[in-house]
Specification:
heterodimer, A: alpha/beta, seven-stranded mixed beta sheet, two-stranded antiparallel ribbon, B: alpha/beta, eight-stranded mixed beta sheet, 11 strands, globular
């Protein structure tokens, strides 16, 4: 029986389907396993790093392993990342920001207070401003709630969304391309009018009202069915990419994808 | 006929810090908890230097300098210790409102260093458009003079008075070699700076000698004309990583992070994390042998 984590991994892997020869970057266990699963199954053309500086053709497993336990097919250090991947648009990243709003604007920098004196300082904007204006991005949120899917706008816009009020006239926003949002409840996209967020599949036993109640802004119901469970082949690949079962620590008590009746 | 001066760039860490002045803008190489010139940072922490503007892909270098009240302004895209994602002393400084900041995207930061390296006032970029960065940082736009008329952010040059780097190997001329998997943006810190000071794990007479041969020349990512001074400080990256020699000292980072909560007073713990000098600091860790045993990080 697949776990909810494994369901999310399989759903998130769909974000990388048919992307072509781009660097698939999954930050965090679920996105990283999703990118690895995509490359190992439907999208072998994806490029991928070992998480440090080398391109690998075999996705590197999560967790403790020997430092040299990867075959480097190429070199893509941070020092070349903007030149080769980000600023050429040859990348699709899946990340977990602290907040996201109805425009797809994301925040990883700070919460509350002011920029001069934040109530809670987080990482800083990192590469989000560049990622979001140059290449496709998808998101994974392990705890779907109005604290994450915030009403109004995020506290600091660290990544570009579809908010017309934020767009300096004359800028080129053609690279802004938000794809999938995978959460513990559902899968969403930005396919509504003016890129509004839509629910496109619900995880087993979740209904739209539950998702809407956990979201700080109005969602569009475009549900076409239940989020598919991973099949045996996918589960075997996920298990091989996560030998230390880190995926079992993502959700409290590691629930199954479909609760027992 | 006079004998030509031997262009010997060796100096000790104290002499390097003696060339720095209050109010200077200082760039620090490395990335997060990876290959940071921590011995040179500790030497700054032992000095009376103050009011610094620090430019960095930040880790404990930034956290310590903030905690010690050395920083007037920080130019950053993130500050993190990887496995400890949020740098605790940096957070205290931010949440206390004690430092000015210019927050940038990671790519903008290296772009600003490149502008400085080439003597340009700015370089154009799309990055920052559609976010709060431009408004918060006072970044202006520039319009393409060509038919496209595109409006871009003018990323200002991040001109550095000095840059600090820690590398694997140097000779006395300032030829430097980097053996880790990544060079990060060290090249651009060096070129953006009026003076670049480099500490190294290994100091040799002639870098061109040795079994590594011609291949090692590829590890020379900064021509020595960009190096003003070099100093030999084995374990000079600790507690950050020094690939391929050793990884980040997560036990030391944990103690450092815990100290931010209890007692939370830098003056009470500075001696533990800075030491009276490098010899005492290294001895407190169990010596070079102990540092070289720290396993490389798995990402």
């Amino acid at each position: 029986m697949a776990s909810l984590a494994e369901l999310c991994i399989a759903a998130a892997a769909e974000a990388f389907r048919g992307n072509g020869e781009v660097v698939a970057t999954g930050v965090g266990p679920i996105p990283r396993l999703a990118a690895g699963l995509a490359k190992s199954t439907h999208s072998p053309e994806l490029l991928m790093t070992d998480g440090e500086a080398y391109l690998v053709e075999s996705p590197v497993p999560l967790g403790p392993r020997a430092y040299d336990a990867r075959d480097a097919a190429g070199h893509l250090p941070f020092s070349r990342f903007f030149d080769s991947a980000v600023w050429t648009g040859r990348r699709h990243a899946m990340v977990t920001p602290t907040q996201i709003d109805r425009f797809g604007q994301i925040n990883l920098s700070y919460l509350g207070g002011s920029h001069a004196q934040p109530k809670t300082q987080m990482l800083g904007v990192r590469g989000f401003p560049g990622n979001s204006i140059y290449h496709p991005n998808s998101f994974f949120f392990p705890a779907h709630s109005p604290r994450t899917f915030v009403p109004g706008e995020v506290d600091m816009v660290s990544g570009v969304g579809y908010n017309p009020a934020k767009r300096i006239v004359g800028g080129n926003y053609s690279g802004v391309d938000l794809r999938l949002v995978i959460t513990n409840l559902c899968v969403m996209d930005f396919g509504g009018p003016d890129h509004a967020m839509r629910v496109i599949s619900l995880h087993p036993a979740v209904d739209f009202a539950t998702v809407q109640a956990a979201t700080g802004f109005a969602l569009i119901d475009a549900v076409t069915g239940e989020t598919p469970l991973p099949d045996a082949e996918q589960l075997a690949i996920i298990a091989a990419l996560d030998p230390h079962q880190i995926r079992a620590t993502i959700f409290k008590d590691n629930p199954p994808a479909r609760a027992a009746a | 006929m006079s004998t030509p001066t031997r262009p010997d760039k060796r100096m000790d860490a104290r002499a390097i810090v003696a060339q720095l002045r209050d109010g200077m803008t200082i760039g620090i190489g490395g990335w997060g908890p990876r290959r940071k010139p921590m011995a040179l940072v500790r030497e700054i922490l032992r000095s009376p230097l103050k009011d610094l503007t620090i430019v960095a892909y930040g880790g404990a270098d930034v956290g310590m300098l903030c905690a010690a009240g050395k920083v007037r302004k920080l130019i950053f895209a993130f500050v993190s210790l990887d496995a400890i994602p949020l740098e605790p002393w940096f957070r205290k400084a931010r949440e206390g409102g004690t430092i000015d900041v210019l927050e940038l995207d990671e790519g903008m930061l290296q772009w600003g260093l490149k502008a400085a390296a080439f003597g340009l006032p700015f370089l154009p970029t799309r990055v920052g458009l559609g976010t709060d960065l431009a408004a918060l940082g006072g970044l202006e736009t520039v319009t393409s003079p060509y038919a496209d008329g595109e409006v871009l952010i003018a990323m200002p040059a991040l001109k550095l008075d000095a840059a600090l780097l820690h590398v694997n190997k140097c000779d006395w001329r300032g030829n430097a070699q980097f053996f880790g998997a990544d060079f990060y943006y060290d090249e651009w810190f060096a070129k953006a700076a009026d003076k670049c000071f480099v500490s190294c794990e290994q100091l040799v007479e002639r870098i061109e000698d040795g079994a590594a041969g011609i291949g090692a020349a590829h590890a020379n990512i900064i021509e020595r004309c960009f190096v003003s001074g070099i100093t030999h400080i084995p374990c000079g990256a600790h507690p950050s990583s020094m690939p391929p020699l050793h990884g980040p000292d997560m036990r030391a980072f944990k103690a450092y992070a815990d100290a931010a909560k209890d007692p939370g007073d830098w003056t009470m713990v500075a001696e533990q994390f800075v030491g009276t000098d490098e010899a005492a600091y290294l001895q407190s860790l169990g010596g070079k042998e102990a540092v070289m045993q720290i396993p490389l990080a798995i990402y």
